[in-house]
Amino acid sequence: MKATNLLRQKQILNHADGIRFATFEFVIWQVDKTKDYPEGVKYRAWLSENGETLFGFDNHKPKGPHLHIGDKEIGYVFRGYAELKNDIIAMIKGEGFLYED
User: Looking at the DSSP assignment, which residues form a beta bridge with residue 2?
Assistant: First the structure.
């Protein structure tokens, strides 16, 4: 099966300080369930400011689910779409940016 786009969101987020802003992009695809994508979902969520990564979530192969924070990568436990979205929103707010669904 070809990947099916389930969500594509790209927006500019303002910072609480009223001066800074960042680009946020969130994409989810439905893919075949495989050992690399056991949930049948591939995703990427990214927040960047002035071309620099603040954080990013993705689950590309061969790494599987992981989180980028600046230049570092750490493992991430995917617990479903709702929890992923909650984690992303918490990270956005933790960076001081305003997010409205």
Answer: none
Q: Exposed, middle or buried: residue 61 (CB in 10 Å: 0-12, 13-18, 19+)?
A: exposed
What pLDDT shows up at residue 70? Answer: 87
Total domains, the chain: 1
Identity of the amino acid at 87: D
Encoding tokens for residue 46? 């990214």
CA pair distance 90, 96, nearest whole angstrom = 10
> Any alpha helices (H) in 1-101, and if so which ranges?
81-94
Task: Tell me the C-alpha distance between 14 and 28, whole Å.
Answer: 23
38 assigned to some structural domain: yes
How far, in Å, CA of 7 to CA of 15, rounded? 24
Residue 33 lies inside a defined structural domain of this protein: yes
Per-residue model confidence as pLDDT tens digits over 82-100: 999 999 999 999 999 999 8
> Which residue reads 């500019």 in tokens?
12
